[in-house]
Amino acid sequence: MKIDTTSAFLYSGAAVLFGFGIALVLRKKLFGVAKTKGQSALDFIGWMSMGYGLMGIFNELVSFPMQGLRTDLQKFWIYVFMNVLIIPAICWAILRYMKRVSAGVLFGDATQTPSVVGDSLDEKMYESAMNELNGEGRRAGAWAKALAESNGDESKAKAWYIRYRVNQMYDEPEYMPVPAEVRAELRSPITAIQYATQRGLTEKEIGQLIKKGELRSMLYGGVLYVQSWPPSDH
Question: How sure is the predictor about 86, in pLDDT bands with cuts at 50, 70 and 90?
């Protein structure tokens, strides 16, 4: 059967946009921000595999039938399981492990106290979790889980909640150790989100301060850091 070159080109372009476009969206949700070359490599491999697999699925289900070509079911299932599911899942698992090891935390359930990155950081996270538990910021879902895990014993649930939230905080940008490269560039660096929260500023106001040169900043690993010292009146 004769295949129209223009149609084939258009279908191929649509397959690329579909596959790698969806993969790009999923990449941000699944893999997060890579902070080292090793993490970036795994992130890239997972994204490429997922994009190639989705592109292949689009071709087998849409492009080829529309052009009067036969669908290869064997290839279709290889795309689904190997490219879209297995390889990205392996990359995600290794990447998550690397991130937690770099933060000083290994896998474990919430009833185990995580390894600490440093005493001051550890104490800060426990203090934040305690304030969250006793204030209006208590997370309803986490508290419900704490009660369920503690069989309704509120005192045990409070302890479980704090350990659970501290374990989660190791994956939150404001509690991650500041990279050495950022410390070398900025004095007392913190994330821009922390800076804005402390001073009651909006994202736009932070951007204006940086643009005017009134606030030193550095983008590293997808996280924007700013210099918190010496303090300035904003």
Answer: very high
* Listed residue (49, 24, 35) closest to 95, CA to CA: 35
Taking alpha carbons only, the member of 138, 148, 143, 175 closest to residue 161 is 143
Q: Are residues 90 and 20 in the same domain?
A: yes
154 in the same domain as 186 = no
Angle value at C-alpha 7, between 6 and 10, nearest 5 degrees = 90
Three-state SS at 153: coil
Is 113 inside a domain boundary? no
CB 95, CB 53: distance < 8 Å: no
pTM of the model: 0.44
In a domain, 232, yes or no: no
- CA atoms in the 13 A half-sphere facing the CB of 83: 19
Cβ-contact 58, 19 below 8 angstroms: yes
At 200 the pLDDT is 79
pLDDT for position 176: 64
Whole domain around residue 197: which residue ranges? 178-227
Return the pLDDT at 77: 93
* Residue 70 covered by a domain: yes
For the ranges 46-55, 167-176, 220-229, which has the lowest average pLDDT?
Answer: 167-176
